[in-house]
Design a protein that fits this description.
single chain, 3-stranded mixed β-sheet, alpha+beta, 13 strands, 178 residues, 4-stranded antiparallel β-sheet
Amino acid sequence: VRFGSNLATIPVDWEVTTLSQVCEKIVDGPHSTPDYTDKGIPFVSAGDIENGEIDFENCKRISEGDDQELRPRVDPQEGDILLGKVGSGSLGKICIVDTGRRFNIFVQLALLRPISKKILPGYLGTALQYRQMQQQILDNASGASMQYIGTGAIGNLEIPLPTLEEQKEISKGFGHIR
């Protein structure tokens, strides 16, 4: 057993790496607010994530045109992880995208796209909920009145990395995406 610099005791054969090494994409939503519409493409914010799921029914909506403009940056896909990056109630909130439904995200959320040959979505989602990972998020957050963590700091967070087989076992309890 060994200790990572920011992690709990982990098995000696597990690697310790950073999120930027196991994610092909770490981005947040647009830093400007598009116009909301009554109907249209769901525009998910941190407040729309409850108990690890996205509440599509009550989220804001944006036009097809705004979605097309924003899509190249984010483009959420099944297996991506959404991470709340702003605010006391939302900082560190986790959700695995488990739908092929088209939607976009607001700046309060970061999207992490796991590199499938290195890390499974279910394991990444599970690991990000560990107390030590949540503490790293808090420790790396900035801001006095409203805490936030930037995508660069998210990429630098350390994560224990077991084998893919062990990741499958660990992620069994988290949702239906492995």
